[in-house]
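Dear support,

We are seeing what looks like truncated structure output for some complexes. This example has two components. We would appreciate it if you could run it in full and send us the complete token output so we can diff it against ours.
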Amino acid sequence: MQKLVVIGAGMASGRLLEQLIDADPGAFEITLFNAEPRGNYNRIMLSPVLSGEKSFEEIVTHDDDWYATNKVTCRFGEKVLSVDTARKVVVGEKGEVAYDKLVFGTGSSAFIIPCPGHDLPGVVAFRDLEDTTAMTEAAAKPGARAVVIGGGLLGLEAAAALRLRGMEVTVLHIASHLMERQLDPAAGYLLKKDLERRGITVLLEASTKEIVGNGKAEQVNLADGTELPCDIVCMAVGIRPAVKLAQNSGIACGRAIKVDAQMRTETPDVYAVGECVEFEGNLFGLVAPLYDQAKVLAKTLLGQEETFAMRELSTKLKVTGCDLFSAGDFADGPGREDIVYRDPARGIYKRLVIEEDKLVGAVMYGDTADGNWFFGLIKDGTDISEMRETLIFGPSYQGGASVDPLSAVAALPPEAEICGCNGVCKGDIVAAIEAGATDLGAIKATTKASASCGTCTGLVEQVLSVTLGDEFVLPTAQPVCGCTDLPHEDVRRLIKAQELKSQEAVWQELGWKSRNGCHVCRPAINFYLLADWPLDYTDDPQSRFVNERNHANIQKDGTYSVMPRMWGGMTSPQELIAIAQAAEKYGATVKVTGGQRIDLLGVKKEDLPAIWYDLNEAGMVSGHAYTKGLRTVKTCVGSDWCRFGTQDSTGLGIKLEKKLWGSWTPHKVKLAVSGCPRNCAEATCKDVGIICVDSGYQVSVAGAAGMDVKETERLVDVRTEEEAIEWTTAFIQLYREHAKYLDRPYKWVAKVGLDWVKEVLADDAERQALVERFDISQSVYQKDPWAERAEPEAARRFQPLADLTLKAAE
Amino acid sequence: MDTVLDAAVKTFIQVTEIWVPEGDRLVLATGNYGELSAFEEATRAMSFGKGEGLPGKAWAEERPVVLKGFDGSYFKRIEAAAEAGLTSAVAIPVFNDAKLKAVLVVLCGDDENRTGAIEVWHEADGFLMLDDGYYGAARHFEWVSQHTHFPRGQGLPGGVWSANTPMLFRDLGSGYRFIRADSAGKAGLTTGLGLPIPVPQDKTFVLTLLSARGTPIARRFEIWDSRPVKVGREVAAVRTDGICEREGPLWTDDNEEPPRRVHINQGNIGKVLATGLPLIVTGKPGLTEGYDTLVALPIYDAGEIAHIVAWYV
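Here is the complete output from our reference environment:
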């Protein structure tokens, strides 16, 4: 095992150790030196420790147990005296230790202004726990006064903390506004005002001349003659890398220890990380790049490749109630433009700096909600020209208003049924969660909710989220469209659970983002409503696709196809004569389809009512060749004619078609009945296919013969024709009540599982109830659309608005 | 999540209840009465008009009210309280601008062994002065507090006042305002939650809950920030600070990971965001971080919930 010695137990080297130990715990025997008598703690959180808003224990990153568990030999409180890179040993106050690899993590020390009196007791920096303790003790005296020299991040955090501790605090800052490296003058003004509201005195352009006192700091005198009596002076004017040990050891240094992009110094087997390094001329003071360095160095030490790169940084001030954010470069310059937003009443100031259609800087005061988003734009160099006008209002303005995806479920009363299969209410699920069921599996096990068809899974997960909060991570589901965050399955369940019976009710109660839906969601919602509430909801033709609205399929040349229904593929000479006459009269092309019927192609839109009327007069109705509904029932000739036929397949096909026609379904539905297993009607690739056998009827479902090809799966074998019709009808009604709009039956069955479908339909009462509900729906929807639209009033809608073929009168 | 309840502890607050306006009266929305079922029964039969009883007084006077010693007072449940051993109460109105959303009432019993403090501070002549407070056995601390005032920015009350945000102090035994801190340390007070109490009139009130280890007001405190300037246009809240006896610190260093965030309707805090009302959840440790009871209190600013403070016991 190689020997790794690390000098300095700061945040960067602490992160390095974590990365190393996580990646390969046995790679190194580690010795850690630290001049402070303790291990790694989150130094940047010392400000709230000083204010009393955190305890020191809370900011300890690695405690004794951590070092012991990870077998790190700690030499805390022991200074390193020298490093002998030739012998590869580190010499500490208590002896030397050999290394194979050495890491300098010596950090930085506070810069102390070398004014007279700077070395008096009572002059402290703000770097470590000792400084913090000294200031806390100074505050423990009635009327104690502090002078903080430096109006940067650290100085202001110290000032606010000392004020909370009960001190009278004055901040001295040499520049003309606070935090001039991170803020522009406007934000600096607001920050000063905020600090003054806390009772802190801020003196700008204040030059410290001297610190005086009798054996300890008692007064700060400024160059302009101002005298500031005090009990403690905190110098927070910057840091300088702690590199003396490295320099003395012959490690190449510039302003700090020089490293390459793998954190290697110029000396073999010696590395450096943190505030003590210099990379391509850059020094480091914020924590984010230090963590990047630690990650790179861990990989380097483990012989892996990784490269450190500079990145943009952002700044926040840790003063409670003071919302400030700064990132990037906001200096004035040629070609730079500003976008500024101010709200004086609320003390808000936001400024964005743009250069060549990219955001290069952002300063925000009072409203920092979008800070990270702006920071991302800066880091990524995003082209913002498209959103320039609204950029200052942040990401939510770009994407429209956000809505609450949980509101619909939160609003459900406890008695609302979530799982229709097993009759489980919201209250049951909440009770199970309260009793300790905290994931979907536990809910399924304890309540049976979502344990059957699973279409309510999304809703059960939402109940978990509403009840448990963010401890339950909600899986992302594909929403119906951009108008809602709810997926189809949830919308369906909520329409039932909340008894939503109109489009307006859906938009409102389910929190639709748009006023009344869009071309994607309206057809789906229209179907769900009419399928669930056939007697309460009225079909909305405006929510249908154009073919369904016009009851004919539009063709590529703008004409339409007209297809009369041929029950079970049977026709008659009279029907054929009427079709022939209609074709001749309206100039239609005649085509025999794969579904055993005749298509009349090339009919003009304005002729549609007339051709429908003519076909109606011959006793024919619409074949619904354009709908998400029952299309055809293909049959073979069956036992009447065929030598192999076992049953009257044609008769059964006609009965099925006469029962099912006119019903709306999630997608088109095609049936077939074959009279024997030779399967001439190709029933085994239909949505429902029936094969007649000597013993009765084999009903199978969920086939496909389109983009996907799939054989049907056996649903049930029954003895009688009546049973075959009942099972088929119940299956289609179950599909109507549960499937996602535009899912063909085979897709729906794949989601819910054929076992569940079988289980539901095998229940005699449930099967009959499904048939009853289907019949109720048919009482409304089984009507010929042609007959309705062949009326003169309705027919007028199919006339062109103007006849552009007419010539103007002379 | 650990849902195993610790051994029962003697808590400083014995009863917490939420009263909400219904027409011209305040009716009980929910309450946590522990084992004081007779007092609970007496309470359930009651409602308060404006100015009536303690909740009605907080409503009428538009300010938090501390009431110590019920005998001969306007308190309406004197007998039941006496039987239950309850002797003091604090009513905290929750206003959204001028509209009263609810009144949170906490009741405590006189007990020489119960230490803690519930204080109401108000602004007068540029300082925060003690309006009144209930301290249990911490008599010396009570006396010191009565003789302490806080300028802006100083101590927990002054910090809350100047920052207009709830704050959570860890070590009450050291530092701020010297004598009070010293006394707090001697009284065993450890954690302090301070929160602004907005009222319709242009007055400043700050409530502090100071908890002692032996008889805690709470064993877990949380502060959530839900201001749009912090969370954006989405109705949500981020946990900015918190401390828990079991889990330790509940804040995150945002260099490491973003703070915990919940959306409207997501869990208990999400419910407060959705209803705009205080919340008490009791007897469901699975929903209350393993503790028996959660109390969550919204703090409004400029017509919306700005912060939510939650305590668990």
